[in-house]
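Methods: example folding runs. The two proteins below were folded one after another, and each record is reproduced exactly as written to the output file, sequence line first and structure-token line second.
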Amino acid sequence: MSIFFLICFTLFINVRTISARLLTNSSEPSQWRSIKNSLDQTGTGSCRTGNAIDDCWRCDPDWETNRKMLADCAIGFGRNAVGGRDGEFYVITTEDDDPVNPTQGMLRHAVIQNEPLWIIFDRDMNFKLKEELLMNSYKTIDGRGFNIEISSGPCITMQNVTNIIIHGIYVHNCVQAGNAVVTDAPQHYRRRGISDGDGISIFGSRDIWVDHCTLAKCHDGLIDVVVASTAITISNNYMLQHNEAMLMGHSDDFVADKIMQVTIAFNYFGEGLVQRIPRCRHGYFHIVNNVYTGWKMYAIGGSANPTINSQGNIFIASDDDSTKEVTKRETIPGDDEWKNWNWRSDGDLLMNGARFTTSGNEASGSYTKASSMVARPASLLANIIPSAGVLNCKIGELC
């Protein structure tokens, strides 16, 4: 790797534009972009970046009119998540929350309906929910155009549902709740135990896409995917200031998680992250074209023989010599079974002394099950990577 590229990329990481929509109770999520500021590699000024998701819709100045076009832009294992594409728009008009008897205009009322809905907002809103937000199937929560936060209370739960899109939401400071009755469908309630305090909890669900969200400072995980959830894409998110960022898989003994297929793509893993970026069990995980900066323990970990296909990522280790290793296997001391687990690093850039310990059979067919999209070369990320996290979308302009 040339010294020139290292210097340019360091400058690129540090020259990040703060969103004009200030976000409270945490460091303001940054939009990070190339030094060329939306110019393509040839300098022609194209709005396209090489990120297939964003190139699908962000060049459209009429994105507000054509909001549902987003549902056709997913990539990876969650590419079939249509959310509320085939339903009506539902406009949220109040920040109020009633876990048992939500009324028209409340976010909770929208997400529990049985029919598909594309959920949007009529102004900036900060939801402080009283209990976890239990979602019904075929819903999109689309925060584009406003500053939409879910914070300082329990947050989003998907349990035994399908076809959910979460886009453009700032989720932070989530806490535990429960031992309470919560509605999860029209005229249906259930008593909930104590929740984990995740930002977004995906439990026994499939065809889920979480895109362009910013997540920080939750009680447990930022995004947890457990209990045989599959067909998941986590993309273009900005994660920061958290210990255990993402758990993939319920437990070592829960073998049903062998069906899991999760794509983690185009995310920016920023300041203050410690570990589990992600931590994986049993299934197949495509970790592709992300940027990792300065994890405090490890970046990618796992147990129970998951397949890890790491492609085209940039791993920038901190200056602490004890945290240069990207990977961590959770095994019994002295047990070398991990050497048979299929973990590969294909085209990753390992910077500032970062190390990735590979294992298993490089030619194994398991990587086919852990492949969901074509990776861009990591060396191009400094020129093509667009904004991560919540976007500052303005009506009538490119987003």
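Second run, written to the same file directly after the first:
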Amino acid sequence: MRNRPSEEPLRQVRPHPGDQPWNRPPHPADVDPAVLGALLHRHGWQRRGGAAGRYGRWTPPGPGGGGTSLLVPESRAFPDSDDLLGEALDALARNGTSAAREVLISLAVPSDEIRWWRDTPSGPAGAAPWSAGEHLRGAARQMLLAAALATRARAGYYGARHRRAATALLDEVLVGPAAEGRTLTAFAPVPTGRPLAVRLHQALHAAREAIDYQRATGGMDAFDGAVEAGVSRELTEALTTLVRGTEGARVAVAWAPGTQAPDGCASAAEPVEFSPGDLPVLREAAARYLREEPSVPVRVTGAVVRMRRSGPGGEGTVRLRVLAGAEVPHVRVTLDEEDYRIAGHAHLVGLPVRVHGRLERRGGFRRLTGASGVVPVQVDEGERDRLMKALQENLDFFEEACGEAYGDED
């Protein structure tokens, strides 16, 4: 097991992919008839009669759906309820449409659903350019990442901060098929993904209100308060990507049927709409967030992974793999001659270093400025052995980069 300095929080162990519930089809005994009915309605299926109080007959959305129907019991009060549910699930599995697959996903993994729509011109027979699907998925991922970042901290601009934890949160999210590059649905499992869905729901509404305020008054002040709801440069850039090249776009968050709406969130909310007329405001907000996010004072503990200076003496630049003290994977820091020498010696003996400075927003919070007080940090034998192994693999590079600093060790 890998060991780290005591300042670094432990990471959670992710389950093996084979243990994930979406690899298994839903079993009739695990399906709530009311939840199935709510999901069918959400995904456009039409109820067309059935025995009142006993079951409903549902047909799929769109033209040509009349030839297929599902008999879905309204409860488990009747002996044939499990049989009807089993037949309905089999029919959904055979249906093959996105409206059927998305229902099955939500049944297998109870999830909050996030749906995007892009209003783009249609090609022949409803076709869309190949790039449209990639564009939609890229914008959706940007937006989910912005929401995941906001679950870690509130900031107008994150840069490289919190990226590792936010990206890990996205690994739990499932995605449905994209329909001609115009619609896409993501499924955030309730136990792990609800904070992300809540943050996105609140941030979208706050962004819409801030845009409306700016367009009505010309002031950008509302974007300052919107940061607390999760609005950031990353979110405004994601919205810009989503809307650009369209006649309009919408985003909706719907809570998993059978669960209560989160505190402060409406149980059923209309999609939040954005238009090309919003783009200048979104771009101005993104620039404002980048410009006004302050640098952050930090005390970083990190392992030296690269050293460089122009001559055998004087100041040099060191790249650290961050172990603790900042939510970024790496930082670059310029050190004076003595601190540079200390960093080189610490690396030679397999020790990380601790340094004080300010994490600078320029460059995405990847640079430490005003660095001082470089000291080696003691770690346990397991971590030290791992760092020494890394040194052996890169020894030639370090000898070339550090020059006489290593010779002084003798």
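Comment on the second run: DSSP finds 13 helices and 13 strands in the chain.
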